[in-house]
Design brief:
The protein is mostly helical. It is built from 14 helices and no strands.
Amino acid sequence: FNHLSCGEYFCRYCSEMINALEPFYLDHPEDIGSREPGAVEALFKALSYSGIAMTLVGTSAPASGGEHLLSHTLDMMSANDGVAHDLHGRQVGLGTIFACALYERIAQIEKPEFKPIPSRIDAAFWDGRAGNVRDQYEQKTPSLGIIGEKLQRAEIWQAFLESIADQVRPPGQIKNCLKTAGAAHTFADIGCSRERFLAAANHMHEIRKRPTVVDLAWMLGILPGAADEIVDAWLTR
């Protein structure tokens, strides 16, 4: 939606380069679990190509969206309180399920109605890192206003919904892929309590200046209310 509303560069070549490899592991996750060479090779190629895509575009946007914010937030929470976090990729797996569940809810909205976002961060939550987080959040705020204004136009919103249908996978497919491959797919798998996971999910929109689906979910009133439902539906068992 940054491409449609803010004119952010979208490289279709980069997208297609990575998507071409996706069926080799997403459609056959059991081959990842059994370490089948072809599936593992495709997975590592996708990782490598995502790095190439980021280099070509000049930002992390092709490979890092709202799903990564969950992992970064858990890491920052760990730095604050000393509670151990898991590996980045395992945490991002859960973040991907969560982000896809947000997209699924957004896709059901025919005519968007945008709500005011919180004007400030939860400084107490971030403790000594509040200053850095506030700086990122304040840089993002003007862009969110532009996004809300543009996406209210029927033709732009419809184009966005079509892009979701074309690019985004259902949360159930991502969860099944991770589960079948033997990867983390519940908050317990990453050693996280439900309360801690929800705290991260409800604060992760504050940490990065580039808007993501998490910000859009806040703007549409999906978050924070739907976080509990998403966790219970997709990340508990």
